[in-house]
User: Fold these one by one.
Assistant:
Number 1:
Amino acid sequence: MNEDHEVFIAPGSGFCKGVAFAVQKALDVAKNKKEGSVFLDGELVHNRAVGERLYAQGIRPLQRNSKIHGGDTILIRAHGISPKRRLFLEHFGCKIEDCTCPLVRKISRIMEANRHRQIILLGDRNHPEIEGLCGYAENIRVCENLKELSQLIAEVCQNKKTDKNFLDNKNFKGTENWIMLCQSTLDMDFLEAAKNLCGEKNFSVEIFDTICSATKRRQSGLEVLKDCDAVIVVGGFHSANTKRLFEKMKRQVAAVFWIEKVGDLAPINWRIYPKIGIAAGASTPQSAMENIYGEISKKIA
Ligand code: SF4
């Protein structure tokens, strides 16, 4: 690298403890398996390289036509599953190894303990974590953005005014007794804005900040990248937390590239960017970041 150029990795980037735990557990199960096969229910984590590594160790995706025997093992993904899905897996009669991140499990315990209250869940409704969590309680409304939250509050307030039960046909009753939780990888700014909105509208809700500490570290780590001329965000194209990193950086830096692996680096003259930052999602292995750091350093040397 020359004196006019700088490349650095944002603090908190890469594998979080939950992902490291899930990957290690899956690899250990595969390594110690004396007989039978190991199946994975869904994606362990959202990273293709990790998926390929698991496949190389003999771990296969659980499919409709998979033939499961008593000696086999099914792995539960890091994002967790609903109790109903777990029951379904148990009916195969084989061993189940739970790779759910303990912090996601903690959110599901809060949901369960409050299962009879009205629950607002902030996050992506199609994300496996949210899909799994929705199985732990009854009266849940998922809000993906402030507009949806605002509409929900308006419905509740309207009901208050007309003194009717709120959304009777969906089992939502009354306007009190609401709680709010969030996806573990939610954007901290979204939670803050949601809190403010509830305050402004006098919407009485008990708020649980369930964004995990790894996500908070990762999002705060982006601060050091805001003065960069270009930022490379590394992570799976369907990883929720990588998408949030990418969107956040796009609001602050003109040139932002989202790649999965070193081979995706754009064939451009990287020397036009004096200061290049690298940030990575929670399911991105350290080795992927190091490869990219090495490659960029060569390109600007
Ligand atoms: S991002 Fe947080 S909740 Fe998700 S796997 Fe990592 S540590 Fe667990």
Number 2:
Amino acid sequence: MTSFPKSTEPVLAVGGLAVHYGGRSALCDVDLAIDRGQIVSLVGPNGAGKSTLLKVLAGMLPPSHGTVDFDGAPLRKPHRRITYVPQRSGVEWSFPVSVLDTVLMGIADRTPRWRRYGRAEERRALDALDQVGMRRFARIQIGELSGGQQQRVFLARALLADGEVFLLDEPFAGVDVPTQELMVGLFDTLRQRNAAIVYATHDLTQAAATSDVTVLLNRRIVAAGPPREVFTEQALRETFGGQVVILTTPAPSPEPVIR
Ligand SMILES: Nc1ncnc2c1ncn2[C@@H]1O[C@H](COP(=O)(O)OP(=O)(O)OP(=O)(O)O)[C@@H](O)[C@H]1O
Ligand SMILES: [Mg+2]
């Protein structure tokens, strides 16, 4: 697996970012710099713009205003070193494709079109499936898997892609505890490779436990920093609006409670 060089430059940076869908604003005034080896969680209510921000960071959605830079250069389209795993509900599997082929798609743009995947690629894909406990499903169709199993396959694809940045939209949602633990282990592996991970979540406790930086988002950034610092009652109230969010403080690790 590739390790990426230490650098003081952020691997991803957005400045003065705004996104409008038609006339409606989904994000405004977003400034964010993400370093290599950093795990960043995006936290905010439904409709806060988390998925929108991830799509912009993936180069899939052009911002209405502002800049997006990857590795110091403007990002205008998806980049092979940026791996994006969509929110589960966003994936429709109406066409037949095997689990193995899904994983191999992670390296599709590195394989010439005239060539089928070779044995070496297939072995790497099977290894990646092994790492997420899905090797025995390699030959079955992706649409026949449960949501959590599909999520594991996406992770295997992400591993194979050797990405420098991983953008995951609600990877912990609706998956069982072993899958969550697997995910946290993979985050660690990726961090050791000096990759950056940005993920959206609704689980504040998970965010506190599994990120270096938490971004509280509600169309704009309310707070960003180490979770212990950003999970203040005021910032959470500002983020979640009407919902009352109370922190049990002081505590060794923040245990947010939503009433
Ligand atoms: N393709 C789209 N067309 C029009 N509006 C959109 C589109 N995608 C998102 N929006 C709007 O942009 C806003 C932000 O949506 P987004 O999906 O980014 O929120 P989110 O924080 O990911 O929410 P959730 O927690 O429900 O996943 C919402 O008001 C949504 O209605
Ligand atoms: Mg979303």
